[in-house]
Amino acid sequence: MNKGKEKIYNILDELNIKYIKHEHEAVYTIKEVNNLQLDIEGQHCKNLFLRNRKGNIHYLLILCDEKMADLKALAKEIGSTPLSMASEERLYKHLGLTPGSVTPFGLMNNSDKKVKVLLDKDLKHDGKINFHPNTNTATLTIDYEDFYKFLQWTGNEIKEVNI
């Protein structure tokens, strides 16, 4: 079993967070997840690892899978310099993840707590939401309230945003 996946299962169990595991073939995009035609309840989420212009502030944007992120508007909303996608190297350095497996559960690897979480306000209305457990060969379904509990456990700054 993937060590990152095993570790997140242990953390969720310790936090008394219930989840449903869905094992599947490796997927790299939301489109590929949808093409699998799995019967997974809840909102699938898209996760973008971003940086500001100087590259000294990093963000994990979590949004509904069908939405497109307007990075210019988002930067204005959060009072940041222009935002862009962070490199693979930065993703691995800060979250211990690789492209195709970006997930909020990677925050468990962000020991300096410098990655800021930007959370789509609409997610809280969906009840159940879905994320990869630090690998793109599985999906976890989790209640929004429990997911927020995990985010608080990480100690990273959380800001709800309009997408």
TrEMBL record:
Whether Ligase counts among this entry's keywords is yes
Matching Pfam families: tRNA_edit
Q: Name one GO molecular function term.
A: aminoacyl-tRNA ligase activity
Q: What does the UniProt keyword field contain?
A: Aminoacyl-tRNA synthetase, Ligase
Task: Show the Gene3D superfamilies listed in the entry.
Answer: YbaK/aminoacyl-tRNA synthetase-associated domain
Q: Which residues form the YbaK/aminoacyl-tRNA synthetase-associated domain?
A: 24-150
Q: Is Aminoacyl-tRNA synthetase a UniProt keyword of this protein?
A: yes
- SUPFAM superfamilies, sorted: YbaK/ProRS associated domain
The family line of this record is: Belongs to the PRORSD1 family.
**Protein name as annotated:** Prolyl-tRNA synthetase
